[in-house]
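Database export, one record per block. Field names are fixed; values are copied verbatim from the stored entry.
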Amino acid sequence: MTPEMMAMLMLGFIVLGIILGIPVAYILGGVPLVFGLIYFGDKILPMYYAMVFGMVRAYALVCVPLFIFMGTLLERSGIAENLYRGFF
């Protein structure tokens, strides 16, 4: 199977999973794992493990939960609505 054909199959399974209502996180994690197991065999598991935990430990992602928390505080306190009215 050529890499181009495999990429198209993966895209098809991702779209199918979204249509079926499977959570996107499971689709984006599971489809590459299954296709990696088919294409590379058991050698993919250490690479997959290292890639997933390498992304989780990325320093740039530290700000994401704090940004969400800040947005929640602004929304709950009413400041966000006042800022919106002030600008528009």
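Remark 1: Residues 4 and 84 are 46 Å apart (CA to CA).
Remark 2: The mean pLDDT is 88.
End of record.
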